[in-house]
Each structure stands twice: as structure tokens, then as C-alpha cells.
Amino acid sequence: MSPRRFIRGSQSPRFEFLRVRTLKLTLAYDGTDYAGWQWQQGPRTLQGALEAAIAQVTGETVRVTASGRTDAGVHALGQVVSFQTASELSADVLKKALNAELPDDMAVLAAAEVRAGFHAIRNAVRKRYRYVINDGRVRDVFRLRYAWHYRRPLDAEAMHRAAQALAGKHDFRSYETTGSERTNSVRTITEISVARAGQGSPDLVTVEVEADGFLYNMVRSIVGTLVEVGRGVRSEEWPAEVLAARDRRAAGMTAPAQGLFLVRVDYEK
């Protein structure tokens, strides 16, 4: 049933039905000081911070749906959430008001009214993640929150070549850690690359992965496996062998959370 507002007047009072809208927000956040995206009783979470800001601005108690529930310490450059509201505030006004209420490590980059039924998870067709590694001998204290400091030099070109075996449609159960609610572990990676940042940041190696969906800790498991190739203890063929094993124990470690960024989420037209 649509929400109603009681209208008092000089004549007979009446109820007015409110129009419920679906809104889509694009967020950026630093996940360092949060216990992950998903709301929890007690710990500080990103979902909790956003819903508290929405309540302050609209007076409504809402539950937002994110495109993916990022773990503690993971960051976002383009997380997408959807929720329903009866607020009459325009999307642009809502964006400005939310940014005034949100903590400094979280921001609404864009807000838009979308069609009824839009769902941040179900309507997503592609996601892109980036993982950042700092392989300098001396840690960069200004990047500790946003990169994995790996103290050995890595061969980024070998990592890139090895990663190409993971492109395409495969069963990625070897690259999934426990805790996933998904029953199907087949995903399609449309692009995967490893490159050194180059001028200005010679100690940074970035891993970019784009796919139609991701399993729990899939990117971090892929990175941990590619690092074994990059440091020369595994062959360039090894990630493909891990894929074929369909056993998480065959893969490398799960890379730390702080180097991971959700870059972008694409939706069906």
C-alpha cells in the first residue's frame, strides 16, 4: 500500500497518497574505518552511515540495496545503491543534503530517479574492480590505507600474461573463499590486466578485473595467486592450473582488503 499523509484544513480533513519513487545513488567511500558495507548491530558500517543520513534528510527509515556488500577495509569509487522514498526532494537536492550529513570518508557522487523496480543487484550486468599493490622496499606511509605493501619487487608483465588464462567464462570456485551465499560459481571475466603505474608511481602495480559478477573474495584471491607468479615462485601457467583444480586450496593467499576498490557498476539499458 502506498504511504499516506494526513492533511488538516479548514474544511474536512483528508488523506493524500504519496508518490513513492525509486532512487539510485552512486557513492565513493574509504572503507578503512568501517566493518564493511552490510548493516550490523553495533559496529560502524557503510550501510548504517548512509541510512542514518537518509533518515536525517527525509525523516524516513529506509533500507538501501547496494550492488555488492564490500568487506571491511575495501573502498569504492563507484558503488551503486537503490532505495524507495516518498520524499518530494529532487535528486539533486537530496544529493547535496546527504553530502552535508554523511561522514567525511563517504560521498554521494550522483543521484537520480530511476524506473520503478530498479534493483542495484539484479539489474547489474558488469562490475569493475581495481587492486593496488605497492612493491617498493620502503613502505609509502600515505598509501597504507589504499594499497597492499608487498616488500618484494614484482614482475608485472609476467603477472599480466598469466592473468589472461582467467579471461572468459569459467568456474571460479578455486578463487572463492568460504562465506558466499551463491550456488553457481561460473562467471565471465571480460577484461583482466596487470600493469605498473609508470612515471610518478614506479612502485605501484594495478590489477584491473571486469566481469559479469564476482564470487566472495574472488578478486583478492586472483591477486594473491598472481603475486606468486610476479615474485617468481610460480610459473605463468599456474593460475590456469589453479582454475582447473576447482579447489580454493590450490590457489594463492587472499590479498589484504585495503588494496581493493570497486571502480564501476554497469546496468542494463
What series of H and E elements makes up the topology? EEEHEEHEEEHEEEHHE
Q: Please state roughly what percent of the residues sit in beta strands, choosing from under 5%, 5-15%, 15-25%, 25-35%, 35-45% or over 45%.
A: 25-35%
Highest-level CATH class of the largest domain: Alpha Beta
**Name of the CATH superfamily of the largest domain:** Pseudouridine synthase I, catalytic domain, C-terminal subdomain
| DSSP helical segment count | 5
* Overall domain count: 2
The name of the CATH topology of the largest domain is Alpha-Beta Plaits
Largest sheet entry: 10 strands, mixed
Low-confidence stretches: none
Through-space gap between termini: 28 Å
Number of strands: 12
Instruction: Report the mean per-residue pLDDT as an integer.
Output: 93
